[in-house]
Structure formats: structure tokens, C-alpha cells
Amino acid sequence: MNRFFSKRAAGAKRSAIRELLKLTEKPEIISFAGGLPDPETFPREELAQIAADELRNHYENVLQYGASEGSLTLRKAVSRWFKTHGLEVSVDEMLVTTASQQGLDLIGKALVDPGDVVFCGLPTYLGAIQAFRLFQADLVGVPLEEDGMDLNVLEKKIAQAKADGKRIKGVYVIPDFQNPTGITMSREKRIRLLEIARREDFLIFEDDPYGQLRFAGERIPSIRSMDTDGRVILLFTLSKVLSAGLRLAILIADTRFMDVFVRMKQASDLCTSKLTQHLAARFFLDYDMEAHLDLLRRRYRAKRDAMLAALSRYMPEDEGITWTRPDGGLFLWVRLPEGIDTEEMFPRALEKKVAYVIGSAFYVDGSGRNEMRLCYSVVTEEKIEEGIKRLSEVVREELARSRIGGFVG
Ligand SMILES: Cc1ncc(COP(=O)(O)O)c(C=O)c1O
């Protein structure tokens, strides 16, 4: 069969996370692996009421094909809501996509030629790695610091890429509560990144699923809101703020990009489901989005607090183990001492009935072997405590094993 596959398909890898996640699905395992939103945050009663009304009274519209650009009602509703958050976006700068994963796919299709350099965080979101790789981007990793991407290293890598005669297409960033680390890019770095992009004439792909889930600290404006020459393409998904199952996001770009994006989307799926677009639009119009988001923020803050408390209670911090303390989002990131391999440790964690995602899955250069992502959003607070206790036992055993290994070796 292999002879029939396209070169592109033959090069595409299955997501390592999805393969590992299959092993964590047993009910007895406390899983910090999947990056899912808490289903209790989905406004099911409200959506059920809207759905009943839309299906009964507006079936000729919502069960029909729609415009490839997306529902005007949804785009208008989101545009108005963005305004209350300091982001001026016209409906012509918006394309509704089948969630942000499709946005990433369209960016790849419309903008990336084989060999084009796209810079990304070390580590970064695995789905973006998959999407850019499919279009044969040359993904170049840039390490993260506590306040986001190390821009001095980025400058060096730009110089290197230019010296090698490569074409730089853009940089992919998740400025707020990044997946997988929970790290937020500082305002200063956002401004400097934009300056670098202007100077070098490349694009910024700003992916923002978590910015609205800030439960501590002060909101930092998006890079897109500081953009004056249309070089930032922003992806805003409703997956984490409303429902992942609706499969809805808005791709925001300068109108000069839109025609191409619309053509790419038409070739992919003609249009995004009108039914789900209208469910979301009506939620924005008929309900209080801010009150809804406040509930989410409170819920996720309590879970983050539970995980941080459990980590400081059980994890042997003095052994050189560190973790991030995110002000929002769904994840935190643990770094174990060099020499501990979280992939090798994974089966032993499963034996103790706890799971995480291995760090190296998020690194385009295969590093990060001593790191792991913990997601606190779907597990109850009691289970977070128990899960971290189990994980700490696994880590202690691993540390002991590495000491013995070191002595013998
Ligand atoms: C940074 C980032 N981008 C994109 C996505 C994809 O989300 P969706 O396709 O549901 O919008 C996720 C999901 O976890 C994410 O963390």
C-alpha cells in the first residue's frame, strides 16, 4: 500500500501524545495527561435551550450550508465582545474555522512552502508541530525563559537561517499560559518580538486558547492588538472557553490574507458547521460571557492551587526538581534532574496509576527528556492530591534508581 501514499502523508507521524493517552484511559488511572477542558465548565443547559430553539425555529438556516468565511452573526458577536477586551477586529478580518487546529492547517497550506523556517518554542504545542511539519516547514526551536521565548537566541537563529540562505516565514507563539509549560510572554518581549518580525519581515502566528483563562496577575495585551502593519495572524478558539466539541475558532488576519485563507478553507470543508456557529453566537448574544468565564477562572484556579500545594507537599523539591506556577490556563511543567527520563519512567507511573505527558513530545529537537506536562483541568481536587502523591513516589524511586545506576556505572 505504501506506494500509493503521497510523500506528504508518508512523512506524517501519529501524535505521540494520542498514542500514550490511549494507555491512560483506564478509570483507575489518575491522568494529568490529556489537555482537555473540564466538562463541568460546558454551559450545557444554556446550549441545550439554544439548540432546541435553533433546530425548531431556524432549521432552514442552521441545518444548511453556510458561507466559507463563517456566520456573520457569530463574527459580529465575537467582534463586539473582543472590543470589550481592547481588541478592535472587523468582521472582514475574521474567518471562522473548524477550531484552531484547522486554523493551523490553513496557515500551513496558505503560507508555508517546503523548507520555510518557522520558529517555535522549545517546548511548544504538539498539534502545531504536526500541522507545520505536514507542510514541510523547517521548524526551528527557541528555548523558553520564565517570561517567554528567549529573543536573544531567536536573533542568533535568525542570523543563522539567513546565513544558510533559508527563507524565514514566521514565528509560532502561544503568549498566554503556553501549552505545554503554562509560561506567559511578558509585554516587553511581545513588543520586541513584533519589532524583530517587522525588521526581518516575517509573520507572527499567535495562538491564544488560554488568554481568557487568567485567574491571577494582570492581563497583557495580545501581540495582535499591538500590530500596526498586519503581520500577526491570531487564532482564538472557543474550545477552552465554551466547548471543545463545538469545534469553533476564529482566525484573525489582515484582509489582504483573507481571500487565500477562504480558498484554502473551501478546499478543506466548504464551511464550518452552521449549527455550532449559531449555538456559540447565541451564547455570546443571550448570556453573560464574562460571568461564565469567571466561573471557569475560579474553577481552574482552585485546581491549580491544589496541584501546586500537592507538589510542594510531596515532591522532593530540594533534589533539583522545579515546576512552573502559571497564572492561568490548564497546565504546568515539571523539570526533573538531568538523567531522569520521563519516557522510561512512564510505564512505572502507569503501574502506580498516574499519568502525564512526556516532555520530549513537545520539543522539535527531541530534547526535554527529563521534563513532563501536568494538566490540572479535568481531575478533581482530591484526585489531584492523590495523583501528585503517587507521581512523587514514582519520582523518588526514579531518583534512587539513578543514584544507584550512577554508582554502579
Ligand atoms: C496552543 C493550542 N493551540 C491549538 C489547540 C487546538 O485547539 P482546537 O483545535 O480545539 O481549537 C490547542 C488545544 O489544546 C492548544 O493548546
Provide key terms for this protein.
single chain, 409 residues, alpha/beta, Aspartate Aminotransferase, domain 1, Aspartate Aminotransferase, domain 2, 8-stranded mixed beta sheet, binds pyridoxal-5'-phosphate
Structure description:
The chain is an alpha/beta fold and 409 residues long. The protein folds into two domains: 8-42 and 291-402, Aspartate Aminotransferase, domain 1, CATH 3.90.1150; 44-286, 3-Layer(aba) Sandwich (Aspartate Aminotransferase, domain 2), CATH 3.40.640. 46% of the residues lie in helices and 14% in strands. It is built from 15 helices and 14 strands. It has helices at 7-11, 16-23, 44-57, 59-62, 72-83, 99-111, 126-134, 151-163, 187-200, 223-226, 255-269, 274-286, 289-314, 342-351, 381-408; strands at 30-31, 94-97, 117-122, 138-145, 148-149, 168-173, 203-207, 232-237, 249-252, 322-323, 331-335, 354-355, 357-358, 371-375. The strands form three sheets. An eight-stranded mixed β-sheet has the order 2-9-8-7-6-3-4-5, with helices on both faces. A four-stranded antiparallel β-sheet has the order 10-11-14-13. Strands 1-12 form a two-stranded parallel sheet. The N and C termini lie far apart (46 Å). The structure holds pyridoxal-5'-phosphate. Pyridoxal-5'-phosphate binds next to helix 6.
